[in-house]
Write a structure and sequence with these properties.
This protein is of the alpha/beta class. The chain is built from 16 helices and twelve strands. The structure holds 1,3-dihydroxyacetonephosphate and iron/sulfur cluster.
Length: 342
């Protein structure tokens, strides 16, 4: 691996002026949401990250909730949890930097045991992943013998290892229907499970986990938005409460929502999900007006440009999974990836 030229001197080719010149084309992408006065704060880190990616033979995978300067300026692959898992399985680079939360980095590691997987902040967790342990799953299996366990990808590797198959918001229906049984445990998101029960007609036994971002949306909020913006299209994530989902025009994963906007080009839309989604979608579709009662995910927001730069400079924080856990968890993820999309 080549030695790294970290740091920069203001005024030199490696300094801010050089970084601004080399990143000017990237500013063009994000100028609708990042004021010019803020760009110099980002330019040096973006410039350094692009160089470090080449030097380290690294690739950046970023979730749809990452901020625009990450999503549009340093990411090589962007998407929802399913896209990131699928793409992680195909990555050629030696190093994967996962700009998202810890379970996403763990999934990338499960699919790439020989590669180095870095997460810029080890504390980037998830209220759903934190809501259930492997011991909880073992107890549920005792209570419901023979009932298959579907683990949402928003879980630890230990929980995945105790499960039969994983799912994401992008394929949950296909995964549940692929099992061909009348009764399924779907863990840990209670709302996703209840929404799936309505969608599939399968009896779903839920756990009591909640996404701290999506549980805050209310049906009254949707009615207020519709009253203030007649004709608006309401898109919701399936982690929202069932009464919110019932009032939405369309329900899907973050990627499905983004694709819907690209396909249907509604004049005005509200995305009932994390705030950076609206920024990223508005850059991709400037003709669509985004109305923004959104909620921030504090875990996703732990990932910043300076932390991505440090991750590549120092090769930290490396994500590891215990071997015995990894082989069982990988089986659940690979079984999910083999399910045909609906
Ligand atoms: P998606 O897989 O739909 O991107 O959802 C991930 C997530 O954490 C939503 O809160
Ligand atoms: Fe977890 Fe919710 Fe944040 Fe997604 S938005 S990472 S489900 S807390």
């Amino acid at each position: 691996m080549s030695s790294l030229s970290v740091g920069s001197t203001p005024g030199s080719a490696n300094g801010l002026a050089g970084a601004l010149a080399r990143t000017a084309h990237l500013y063009e992408r994000v100028k609708a949401v990042i004021p010019p006065i803020e760009w110099p704060v980002f330019a040096s880190d973006i410039d350094a990250i692009l160089r470090l990616k080449r030097e380290r033979n690294a690739i950046v995978l970023a979730h749809n909730y990452q901020t625009p300067e990450i999503f549009h300026c340093v990411a090589d692959i962007v998407g929802d949890s399913l896209v990131l898992a699928r793409e992680a399985a195909r990555v050629d680079a030696a190093v994967i930097v996962l700009c998202g939360v810890h379970f996403m980095a763990e999934t990338a590691k499960l699919l790439n045991p020989e590669k180095t997987v870095l997460i810029p902040d080890l504390e980037a967790g998830c209220s759903l992943a934190a809501s259930i342990t492997a011991a909880d799953v073992r107890l549920l299996r005792e209570r419901y013998p023979g009932v298959p366990v579907v683990a949402y990808v928003n879980t630890s590797a230990e929980v995945k290892a105790e499960s039969d198959i994983c799912c994401t918001s992008g394929n949950a229906r296909a995964v549940v229907e692929s099992l061909g049984v009348p009764r399924v445990l779907v863990l840990p998101d209670e709302y996703l499970a209840r929404n799936l029960a309505v969608e599939t007609g399968v009896e779903i036994i839920p756990w009591h986990g909640r996404c701290e971002v999506h549980e805050r949306f209310t049906a009254a909020e949707i009615r207020d938005v519709r009253a203030a913006h007649p004709g608006i299209t309401v898109l919701a994530h399936p982690e929202c409460p069932p009464e919110v989902v019932a009032e939405a025009d369309y329900v899907g994963s973050t990627q499905a929502m983004s694709d819907y906007v690209g396909r249907r080009r509604p004049a005005r839309v509200v995305l009932l999900t994390e705030c950076s989604m609206s920024d990223n979608v508005s850059i991709q579709h400037p003709e669509v007006a985004l109305v923004r009662p959104c909620n921030l995910c504090p875990h996703m927001k732990r990932i910043t440009l300076p932390k991505i730069r440090t991750a590549l400079e120092t090769m930290r924080h490396e994500v590891t999974v215990d071997r015995a856990v990894a082989s069982r968890a990988r089986h659940a993820v690979e079984r999910m990836l083999a399910v045909k999309p609906r």
